[in-house]
Amino acid sequence: MTGMTNVTKLASEPSGQEFLVFTLGDEEYGIDILKVQEIRGYDQVTRIANTPAFIKGVTNLRGVIVPIVDLRIKFSQVDVDYNDNTVVIVLISDSGWSASWLTASQTCFH
């Protein structure tokens, strides 16, 4: 994860459940760490016609086609820049399919 955002391991919550916490604008969001498949740098994606602006496209993740959703655009954040701090959080659903969220923020574990 060279050149990407700092990822800091913090103590788990008293409940024993851990979260990946990331910041969008002035707000923090958390995802159950068990839903996170991986955190990776942003690569170019294949655009899909007639999709909303927040759907950046799809990428091939070791043979699995994964949609890339930019939460900054979805939540109407004005300044959207793709740089070394832009990370893709790859999630896995209960049904087994994968999706990715794009953030450009400080990311840590709680």
TrEMBL record:
Cited Pfam families: CheW
UniProt keyword Transcription, yes or no: no
Subcellular location: Cytoplasm
Domain CheW-like residues, every copy: 16-110
InterPro entries, A to Z: CheW (IPR039315), CheW-like_dom_sf (IPR036061), CheW-lke_dom (IPR002545)
Name of the protein described by the UniProt record: Chemotaxis protein CheW
Classification lineage: Bacteria, Pseudomonadati, Pseudomonadota, Gammaproteobacteria, Enterobacterales
Principal cellular location given in the protein's record: cytoplasm
GO biological process, alphabetically ordered: chemotaxis; signal transduction
SMART domains for this protein: CheW
Name of encoding gene: cheW_1
PANTHER family linked: CHEMOTAXIS PROTEIN CHEW, CHEMOTAXIS SENSOR HISTIDINE KINASE-RELATED
Cellular component terms (Gene Ontology): cytosol
Keywords: Chemotaxis, Cytoplasm
